[in-house]
Request: fold
Amino acid sequence: VSTLLTHPPPSALRAYATRALAPDEADAVNRHLVICPDCRRSLDALLGGAGTPVSQLTPPPEFAAARYAD
Reply:
């Protein structure tokens, strides 16, 4: 569904919002949302303020380690 560098399609964001994605697809969307403010805003709009704000997602440990390793 998504990689860190490509935006998931709106249908994937809708499915993510309703928890209708398979676990591996949801994980891919989640990883993208952690680094993409545009997609977080889109998902926040889909959620209409319900649930945990996407802006409070934490990156997976391996992403944080790779991001700060130089």
Notes: Residues 23-35 form the longest helix (13 residues). Helices lie at 10-17, 23-35, 37-47, 61-68.
